[in-house]
Amino acid sequence: MTERQATPEPLAFKPDLEEARAHWEAFWAGEMLERPCINIRCRKAGAEEVPAPRYMAGAREEFGPVIEQVLAYAETVHWGGDAVPTYTPSFGPDMFGAFLGAELEWSDDEETRTSWAAPCVEDWREALPLKLDPENYWWQRMIRFMRELGQAARGKMLIAHIDMHSNMDALVALRSPAKLCEDLYDCPELVEEANNQVRALFAPVYDELYEAAQMWRSGTTGWISAYHFGKTNTIQCDYAGLVGPEHFRRYILPALEEESSYLEHTVYHYDGPDALIHLDDICALPNLECIQWTPGTGGKPFIEWMDLLKEIQAKGKSVYIPCSVAQIEVYQRELDPAKLFYDCWAKDEDEVQRTLDWLVANS
Question: How deeply is 222 buried, as exposed, middle or buried, from its count of CB atoms within 10 A (0-12, 13-18, 19+)?
Answer without folding.
Answer: buried
